[in-house]
């Protein structure tokens, strides 16, 4: 089974590409894919300005995946009972690149590392930082392609 942690931006193609949701849903139902997300993903999707899109993104991530605690915790960012304590501050700082603005991304990457599964994101900077720490990182399009969806024809 393919296990993935999704960044908030990974949900956009599932909403935007006709048939993408069905491919993901079918893969989840068949036990070929497990989608994991954190409170960070929910928080970021909940900040989507367009109300209709926000609802759709939130419904899809909850419908497709499982809420799990983040792989680390950061005061002021993490939610109690939705974060794990970690002693690997070095990894979190590497994901964050010393920039507090990247803390949410760092928490999502730390979760993929903790869960020992792939991180799905469209964020190039996050992809590079996570790969540098040995995490498998794929784009949403690559995940869809793996599952048999033709992203070029969509």
Keywords:
154 residues; Rossmann fold; 5-stranded parallel sheet; 8 helices
* Gyration radius, rounded: 15 Å
Unreliable stretches covering 5 or more consecutive residues: none
At the third CATH level, what is the topology name? Rossmann fold
CATH superfamily: 5'-nuclease
Helix content: 40-55%
Distance between the termini: 25 Å
Which CATH class is shown?
Answer: Alpha Beta
Could you spell the SSE succession in H and E letters? EHHEHHEHHEHEH
Count of runs of 4 or more consecutive helical residues:
8
CATH architecture assignment name: 3-Layer(aba) Sandwich
User: Any idea what the shape is?
Assistant: globular
Structural class: alpha/beta
Strand order of the largest sheet: 3-2-1-4-5
| Number of β-strand runs | 5
Number of domains: 1
What composes the largest sheet? 5 strands, parallel
| Average predicted confidence as pLDDT | 87
Task: Describe this protein's structure.
The chain is an alpha/beta fold and 154 residues long. It has one domain: Rossmann fold (3-Layer(aba) Sandwich). 48% of the residues lie in helices and 12% in strands. It contains eight helices and five strands; from the N terminus they run βααβααβααβαβα. The protein has helices at residues 12-16, 20-29, 39-46, 51-64, 89-96, 103-115, 124-132, 140-146; strands spanning 2-6, 33-37, 65-67, 118-120, 137-138. The chain has a five-stranded parallel beta sheet. The longest helix has 14 residues, at 51-64. The radius of gyration is 15 Å and the shape is globular. 36% of the residues are buried.
């Amino acid at each position: 089974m393919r296990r993935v942690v999704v960044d908030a931006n990974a949900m956009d193609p599932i909403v935007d590409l006709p048939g993408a949701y069905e491919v993901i849903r079918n893969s989840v139902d068949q036990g070929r894919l497990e989608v994991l997300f954190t409170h960070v993903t929910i928080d970021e999707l909940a900040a989507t300005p367009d109300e209709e899109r926000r609802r759709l993104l939130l419904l899809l991530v909850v419908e497709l995946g499982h809420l799990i605690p983040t792989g680390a915790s950061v005061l002021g960012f993490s939610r109690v009972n939705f974060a794990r304590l970690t002693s690997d501050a070095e990894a979190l700082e590497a994901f964050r690149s010393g920039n507090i603005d990247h803390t949410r991304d760092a928490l999502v990457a730390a979760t993929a590392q903790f869960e020992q599964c792939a991180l799905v994101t469209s964020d190039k900077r996050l992809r590079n930082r996570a790969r540098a720490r040995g995490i498998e990182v794929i784009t949403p399009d690559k995940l869809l392609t793996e599952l048999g969806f033709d992203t070029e024809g969509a």
